[in-house]
Amino acid sequence: MTVNPVSVEHLFHSYGPKIIYQDLSLEFEPGKIYGLLGKNGVGKTTLIKILMGFLKPKAGFCRIFGDLANAISPATRARVGLLFERHLTYNFFSIAQVERFMARFYPKWKRERYYELVDLLGLPSNHKISWMSEGQRSQVVLGLILAQDPELLILDDYSMGLDAGYRRLFVDYLREHLKDGQHTVILTSHVIQDMNRFVDDVVFLRRGGEVTVTGLEAFSSNFHCFRLPRDMVKGEVLQSKLAKLACQSAGRTLEHIINLEEHASYFELFTFNTKEEVLRDLEGLGLKASPPILTEVAMDLEDAFVGYTGRH
Question: Angle 80-171-78 (CA atoms, 0-180°, nearest 5)?
Fold first, then answer.
C-alpha cells in the first residue's frame, strides 16, 4: 500500500479563542506540487510547524511518510527538505563549510547540485554567508535543498526578500529539478504569479479553517468575477445589504457567491457558478433589475486569489 508523503487527519488547532483549523483533513499525493495559499493569519505557517513537529495541534494528527509529525524518525526526516520563512541560519559558515556540515545529515547528498548553483555567484569557497545579500543567500539555500535530493520539499515563503531575478532563478531551478515527477512539494509564497510557473494543485485556507483543494488549471478556468454597477442596485436597503455582505464572508450567506467586494462605482461578485446562478442569489436579496447587468471580468491568478480569499 502506497503511503502519501503528507496526511492531515481531522486537525483542530486554535490560539486562544481564535480557531485556525476545525476538522481539517488533507492528503498530499506523491509527485505533485502544491501551492498552499491564504491571507496572513489563516494558518499556512502554523500547518508547516505542525507538519514538521515544531507545534502540537489541539486535536487530530499529521503524518509524514506514515510517521506521526511529532515523532518523525531520523530516517524519515532525512527524506524532507525544509525552507522555513527565512533563509539560512548558519550565517557564520563559509560556502564550503556549510556544504560539508549539511552533507553529514543526508545519505543521498549530491554535492555537485550544490556547487552547480553556488558557483554562479562567482565567489570564493571561503566567502562567509553573513557577507552575502538576500538573493545570494537564497542561491546557497536552494543549492543545499537540491543537494539533499529530498522526496518531500516544504518551502515556506521562499520568495521573502528576493527581487524578481532571484525569484525567477529559484523557480526555474526548482522546476528543472522536479520535472522527473519523483518529488512532492508544498510551498507558500506572497508572490502569487510564481505559482503559475509550476504548481499542480492549490490548497486555499480561509479564516475559521475552511479549505478548498483544486487543480490550478481548473481553478483558473472555473472561478469567475462578475461586476455589478452600483447604479443598478436601487434603494438604500439593498445597497446596505450588499455592502454588509462585502464586509463578511458572502459564501456563508449566499449559495452561489464565494466573495463580494464593494467599490466606489460597482460591486464584484466571485463565484464558481454561472451568471444565471449568481443572479438568483441577487434576486433572493431583492435585486430585480430589468435587464440585470452583470459583466464578467477577466482575471489573472493574483486577481482570482484575492477574489477568493477577500481583500480584508
Answer: 10
